[in-house]
Amino acid sequence: MEVMFHSSSFLIPTDKTSATRYAVVVLNQNLPRFTPLLWEHAKLRLCADGGANRIYDELPLFFPNEDALLIRNRYKPDVIKGDMDSIRPDVLDFYVSLGTKVIDESHDQDTTDLDKCISYIRHSTLNQESSKLQILATGALGGRFDHEAGNLNVLYRHPDTRITLLSDDCLIQLLPKTHRHEIHIQPSLLGPHCGLIPVGAPSAKTTTTGLQWDLTDTEMRFGGLVSTSNLVKRDKITVESDSDLLWTISIKKQDPTRP
Amino acid sequence: MEVMSHSSSFLLPADEASAKRYALIVLNQNLPRFTPLLWEHAKLRLCADGGANRIYDELPLFFPREDALLIRNRYKPDVIKGDMDSIRPDVLHFYLSLGTKVIDESHDQDTTDLDKCILFIRDSPLNQESSKLQILATGALGGRFDHEAGNLNVLYRYPDTKITLLSDDCLIQLLPKIHRHEIHIQPSLLGPHCGLIPIGAPSAKTTTTGLQWDLTDTEMRFGGLVSTSNLVKGEKITVESDSDLLWTISIKKQDPNKTLRSG
């Protein structure tokens, strides 16, 4: 079974070698405090509808000593996509005038805004490399639970695409059952709180290393044991399971945007 | 198959007839704006550890024209339970001096604070077979996702207990597969956004009535179709499924506290 490697280099201040292999998707919740760092790492930056309001309103707040207009010009999305029922007219006009591409589309009950943005990135024919970008999404958690569930489902529906959901408190990634997983932690940035969640289906056997309470061919299911409030013990975690799992780890409360 | 009825009378103004058949658990996230209303409905009020900080700090903010100390005396938890690593010392002392029962226990990785509180309620003499308490919990969502998942798992682990998770935005209830479900909506308070989520296991067949996009023996699973961004169409929703589902519906942004007190 092939090994799939996971690291969180998108939380490390940018260096030249990070090779901007990320795309950022901003959804309509409060921006995590490290959003500027994600933005710097990204080759492609999308806002899903009201996510544009968040960039417009909240990014300047991360740079209180700088002029808001300068910040808004600097952090300009490449694309705004969605049904445009949340974005404010003034925000829309502002980014249109800067050259942001706006893709207006009607609401489809089978796909969330996150879905639509991922499809855009994956099917981007303009640039072959764009279709392989790893996707970082903010604002997918919190708010209405049906929205959150729809966003978690996006991870399951695109198992071949690396998608990380990020909030101020934690990140979530899918660990497909088809691979053994090696998760590399920067302890100054991540942890120690973590969990493995069998959201879609029970797991008859999961085995881990590197956790405070490791699993050994352990059964996990809703209604029984789910690995939550676990702790990372080492810098490398391994997971092998017969079921797709969601991996989640807490993000430390510091300001990684400081170089 | 027996019918299980669901309503949200805890969001209606409290009166004699609502018979105080609820227990309230406050966890450590921002209080929903209707927390005073839930408090009025409850026969038993618990704070899980840092939830006591929330009651102390945030409840007075709902009553800006009243004296904070008066409010804190009025909204006094019956019990504070947990490992006490989040509650502030000043908050703990305040409620101790008012007579709140404090139950200090060490951290157990298999059970969340919500779990511990539910066990307390189940064993409470106020909870009798003849009139079981329904549990309302705030602060179970948001924050760390592993916490949230552990709290959702609590619903699955106590399928015989009616537990509702509440936030400012929505509520979540478990619909056990062993029952047909009738969900009664007060449209002035709830909806229209809703969803049915097969957390834990796929559903081969789910059938609904009363939704904008009803399901008819429809398969639902993560990786495929999950009913999200649905809409309630009427005041009664029915659900029948071969799998346990989470029902979620949005809570309207208004202040139901305005009806709390007359005059």
Automatic annotation (TrEMBL), chain A:
Indicate the segments forming the Thiamin pyrophosphokinase thiamin-binding domain, all copies. 179-245
Name the InterPro entries for this protein.
Thi_PPkinase (IPR006282), Thiamin_pyrophosphokinase_euk (IPR016966), Thiamin_PyroPKinase_B1-bd (IPR007373), TPK_B1-bd_sf (IPR036371), TPK_catalytic (IPR007371), TPK_catalytic_sf (IPR036759)
Q: Name one GO cellular component term.
A: cytosol
Which domain of life does this protein belong to? Eukaryota
Q: Which reactions does this protein catalyse?
A: thiamine + ATP = thiamine diphosphate + AMP + H(+)
Query: Gene3D superfamilies per the record?
Result: Thiamin pyrophosphokinase, catalytic domain (3.40.50.10240), Thiamin pyrophosphokinase, thiamin-binding domain (2.60.120.320)
Which compartments does it reside in? Cytoplasm, Cytosol
Which EC number(s) does UniProt give? 2.7.6.2
Q: Which family does it belong to?
A: Belongs to the thiamine pyrophosphokinase family.
Q: In which pathway does it act?
A: Cofactor biosynthesis; thiamine diphosphate biosynthesis; thiamine diphosphate from thiamine: step 1/1
- What is the official name of this protein in its record? Thiamine pyrophosphokinase
- Which principal EC class is assigned to this enzyme? transferase
Would the keyword Cytoplasm be found if you checked this record's keyword annotation?
yes
Keyword annotations for this protein? ATP-binding, Cytoplasm, Kinase, Nucleotide-binding, Transferase
Question: Can you provide one Gene Ontology molecular function annotated for this UniProt record?
Answer: thiamine diphosphokinase activity
State its role.
Catalyzes the phosphorylation of thiamine to thiamine pyrophosphate (TPP). TPP is an active cofactor for enzymes involved in glycolysis and energy production. Plant leaves require high levels of TPP for photosynthesis and carbohydrate metabolism.
Enumerate the Pfam families for this protein.
Answer: TPK_B1_binding, TPK_catalytic
Q: To which species is this protein native?
A: Brassica carinata (Ethiopian mustard)
UniProt-listed GO biological process terms? thiamine diphosphate biosynthetic process; thiamine metabolic process
The record's section on SMART domains has: TPK_B1_binding
TrEMBL record, chain B:
Pfam families noted in UniProt:
TPK_B1_binding (PF04265), TPK_catalytic (PF04263)
Instruction: Look up the EC number in the record and give it.
Output: 2.7.6.2
Q: Which UniProt keywords apply?
A: ATP-binding, Cytoplasm, Kinase, Nucleotide-binding, Transferase
Query: Where's the Thiamin pyrophosphokinase thiamin-binding domain?
Result: 179-245
One Gene Ontology term from the biological process aspect of the record: thiamine metabolic process
Q: Which GO terms describe its molecular function?
A: ATP binding; kinase activity; thiamine binding; thiamine diphosphokinase activity
Give the UniProt entry's GO cellular component terms: cytosol
Q: In which pathway does it act?
A: Cofactor biosynthesis; thiamine diphosphate biosynthesis; thiamine diphosphate from thiamine: step 1/1
Q: Which reaction does it catalyse?
A: thiamine + ATP = thiamine diphosphate + AMP + H(+)
Instruction: Tell me the protein family, please.
Output: Belongs to the thiamine pyrophosphokinase family.
Q: What does this protein do?
A: Catalyzes the phosphorylation of thiamine to thiamine pyrophosphate (TPP). TPP is an active cofactor for enzymes involved in glycolysis and energy production. Plant leaves require high levels of TPP for photosynthesis and carbohydrate metabolism.
Q: Which NCBIfam families match?
A: thi_PPkinase (TIGR01378)
Instruction: Output the PANTHER family linked to this UniProt entry.
Output: THIAMIN PYROPHOSPHOKINASE, THIAMIN PYROPHOSPHOKINASE 1
Q: What is this protein called?
A: Thiamine pyrophosphokinase
